[in-house]
Write the structure tokens for this entry.
Amino acid sequence: MLEKCVASPPNILATLQAVQAAFGYVPLDTVPAIAAKLGVTDSDVRGVLSFYHDLRTEKPGKHVIRFCLGDSCRATHCENSLAAIEKKLGCELGETSPDGKFTLEKVYCLGNCALSPNMMIGEEIYPRLTPKSATAALEKHK
Amino acid sequence: MKVYIPDDSAAVSVGANRVAAAFPKDVEVIRTSSRGAFFLEPLVEIDTPNGRAGYCNVKPADVPGLLKKKPTPISKIPFLAKQTRFTFANAGLAKPYDFAALKKARGMKPQQILDEVKKANLRGRGGAAFPAGVKWQTTADARGQPKYIVANADEGDAGTYSDRMIMEGEPYRLLEGMAIAGLAVGASKGYVYIRSEYPAALKKLRAAVAQFTDFEIEIVLGAGAYICGEETALLESIEGKRGMVRYKPPFPAVEGLWGKPTVINNVITFATIPDIITRGADWHASLGTATSKGTMPLQLAGQVKNAGLVEVPFGATLEEVIYDFGGGMPTGCKFKAVQVGGPLGSIFPKKLLETPICFDAFAKVGGILGHGGIVVYDDQMDMVALARHLMEFTAAESCGKCTPCRVGSTRAREILEAILDGDGSDDDLALLNELGDTMKNGSLCALGGLAPMPVLTAIQYFGKDFRRRK
Ligand SMILES: Cc1cc2nc3c(=O)[nH]c(=O)nc-3n(C[C@H](O)[C@H](O)[C@H](O)COP(=O)(O)O)c2cc1C
Ligand code: FES
């Protein structure tokens, strides 16, 4: 599996993205193997892994929520919807809900700013969030 | 019967797919790009003898009987009718792309293309407003081989979405612009670096690249790092490394991707090229202000009634854009401030709304036009909370290479947090000013260099918010 993820020509970021696409995250114990296959050091790989916000080293929940904290969503008072979601999920930004269903991540802009505030679950955008519509969106994901 | 329904991701977010599915089989549903009047989406259009007409904010339940109702002619929607559209001329239409500019460019000598772009006085739309023709000439004259064309589709500025609209709506316009740049500078390959927050744009772009045989283009996916919109960090990221900003010089135009001469431009910059080639440099130079030529696709967001894409020639004032196009504040909201140019853009009070949309007019009043994002804030927005949010953003996104940005942003965030918690001291505002000066003058790139601007302008124009807590 790991073999298939190694980018050619060798490219650390592209390889880590492929690993994450395959496993949902980049298990830290795969780093030495990735480094060996790419011909770089473990710390080269770890450096890239820790730099990019998308890359995670822990298994995420079943659904990933990307909650927008961008300027337009701030301007339209997204904090109310965020608070409602955090309460409902029992976890904060950057965490996974105790039942393992949702990982709540922040994102700076989804390009849907004309219909702010926004969040994305999977690849679906939920626009014009209110505390009510935000928690209702969670219900749709079992 | 035929109806046109956008499949743009913003239109889809408010139900365009569900509306499309609600039409019976005898109605032909054609999916198009969005016109950018997002406050009217889903906008369902039909052909009439006098051009397109549409039904606004359609819900699936409205579909039975919808076509018996009287539609609004698109030409009677002021938000759209008053715009001057070139880069987005085909938005909402279902027009096959004709590549007329590329055909014409093939009949030109590379130097003729370069001269045309220089004469058009096209300035980059990604933020720094550098003349594209000068950059292209530098790469054309550079000795290294091979040469590369890179499209910056990172669109990191919150409050902007014009790159996304081009990639979803008319990706060939971008690819054509890149191919023309390739002809002009003698490049062998192009890259589009696209942010990971745009899955719909990525799919559309992939499909377009697969069909495009005139120039080799590879798509590279970002991984959620704002700094990778900065051109040298972006190149590092394409190379698979941490997105650390490079020292300049050497400039990418001479030593860019893998050390080779590289033209890097924003998506909208490339998307403006086809019109410059087909209509001519003089046409482009005839639009706009003395130093900002052509049109600017502005993106209205935040607390504004009619949020969406507004393409107008440079020179319109902020007030015209926000009130004449944007319709002003939503019911029940009062204007407090506007931020133009993304998270690094200055925060302006009402009195600066007379500022014209023009790179230099903005510079003169201590702001940036950036990528053309306009975010309006209402009077419920606490400027200290906003300033803290923006500094938290910078601290999170700093690549960490230079000290003023890495340490300065964290210190500034801490000070703002203290003010927010009511623990501010008299010296805090002076300290923020001093810290801001150090960041402005000592940072390696414009992230640290501009990050103090929204904070300092917020203090300058909304000092009351900062002082009332002491
Ligand atoms: C922190 C930072 C972020 C940037 N983000 C972007 C971006 O998302 N998109 C973009 O086109 N330019 C961005 N830029 C500007 C690029 O460095 C560069 O000037 C631009 O891609 C050049 O293209 P242009 O001349 O066509 O604008 C950013 C600059 C900085 C300092
Ligand atoms: S700022 Fe939230 S979608 Fe753009």
Q: What stands out?
A: Chain A has a mean pLDDT of 97. Chain A touches chain B at residues 7, 10-17, 47-48, 51-55, 66, 68-77, 107-116, 118, 120, 123-128 (CB under 8 Å). The beta strands of chain A are 63-68, 102-107, 119-121, 124-126. The longest strand of chain A covers residues 63-68.
